[in-house]
Specification:
Number of domains: 2
Largest sheet: none
Number of strands: 0
Number of helices: 9
């Protein structure tokens, strides 16, 4: 019997993993470039070069595919957090590390704007997707707290800091500005200066 007619189970598994990964990457590309509404079985199949039946084989529903995309993004973000904290972060590079921990490893304009756009899209996509992203955001807040701990900035108001970051990124995306990461980092630096000044004044008032 020709062995090529009946591949070893491990070969079949590897091919299956490759096809699933190809589908996932295609869906993520559509998600980042055009938003959640663009992620359809037909569009993903065309981009991945697979029949639509393959998508239904690996992902039980469109929602399941979207959740897999989001979980994969989150996995890459947490890997970045591990690297950032292992590098012994300092206050000098805090704004850049803040962005990497909060949003992810890629700080190009498209990736930053897409990350925030996806979050906004999730709010009207489905309760399960919105809840999954809410969980991811809470995890990112905990990671930011660890970053602040490493930099001796435990008093920083993270909700305000993340709101500054998100606002700048979304605004830059709407205005189609370039250098989004630099704009966000400058805004964070300004916020940190104001925060330290206000904190110093409050300490004087209570002294």
């Amino acid at each position: 019997m020709d062995a090529t007619q009946h591949p070893h189970p491990r070969v079949r598994q590897t091919r299956g993993e490759e096809k699933r990964r190809r589908i996932l990457i295609a869906a993520q590309d559509l998600l980042q470039d055009r938003g959640m509404s663009a992620v359809t079985h037909r569009a993903v199949a065309t981009l991945a070069g697979v029949p639509t039946s393959s998508i239904r084989y690996y992902f039980s529903s469109r929602e399941d595919l979207l959740l897999a995309c989001l979980d994969d993004f989150e996995e890459r973000r947490t890997e970045t957090v591990t690297k950032v904290l292992a590098e012994e972060p300092t206050r000098e590079i805090f704004p850049r590390d803040f962005l990497r921990v909060w949003i992810g490893p890629h700080l190009d304009d498209e990736s930053l704007v897409a990350a925030l756009s996806i979050y906004v899209d999730s709010l009207r996509e489905s309760p399960l997707i919105a809840e999954r992203l809410r969980h991811h955001r809470l995890s990112a807040e905990a990671d930011l707290a660890a970053l602040c701990q490493s930099c001796g900035m435990t008093d920083l108001d993270l909700r305000l800091a993340t709101a500054v970051c998100d606002g700048v990124v979304i605004g830059a995306g709407l205005e189609r500005l370039e250098g989004v990461a630099d704009l966000a980092m400058r805004a964070l630096q300004g916020f940190l200066r104001s925060f330290r000044e206000d904190y110093a004044l409050s300490r004087e008032d209570t002294a």
